[in-house]
Amino acid sequence: MKKIIAVSMLSALIAAPAMAAGTGPYVALDAQSWSTSNNDPLGNPGLGLRIGVGYNFTPNVGLEADYEQSGNSSSVAGVSDKISAAQLAVVGTYPINPDWNVFAKLGMSANKVSVSGAGCTSCSKTDFLYGIGGQYNINPNWGVRLQYESIGKVTNTGTNDLSANTISLGVVYAF
């Protein structure tokens, strides 16, 4: 159901009329707060960073590639885990006015969980990602954005797969 809603939102944004958003390349840097589902025995991975590059083909449609990594979470026994993800997503943008726009993302995320302290192991899983957010444009080049993203499952172990979500705040520089 969540994926259907995300696809519907993205379709509406792509069909929206262009207002003030520009075209061309951009870079982004976000600080993130991570959370996981299914009662991660190591706890939530906490804070992390994302770096991304994108290209807006039209004022309403772009493509963004990101790499993100969580901080370490650790248990009392000294075991810790870290989540990383490489992503590629279509971004639909709807400019509300020259200063504000909203956006939705839909794409794929190659996720990896690294566990240390109990013999180094790792799990990986590629899954769909979706996200929504808003951006305040300080000037034609600089913006500040806030977004929510679900990167899907991060493990592929079967019964107790972990899913991860992020809330991030960051800056965008358009060339």
Number of helices: 1
- Envelope shape: elongated
Global structural class: mainly beta
What do we call the CATH topology? Answer: Porin
CATH class: Mainly Beta
**SS elements, strand count:** 9
Architecture in CATH? Beta Barrel
What kind of sheet is the major sheet? 8 strands, antiparallel, barrel
Order the strands across the largest sheet as they lie in space. 1-2-3-5-6-7-8-9
Helix content: under 10%
Mean pLDDT: 79
- In terms of DSSP E residues, the strand content is over 45%
Query: What is the ordering of alpha helices and beta strands?
Result: HEEEEEEEEE
Say what oligomer this is.
Answer: single chain
Task: State the end-to-end distance.
Answer: 37 Å
The number of distinct structural domains comes to 1
Q: Rounded to an integer, what's the Rg over CA atoms? A: 17 Å
Low-confidence segments, given as residue ranges, are 6-20
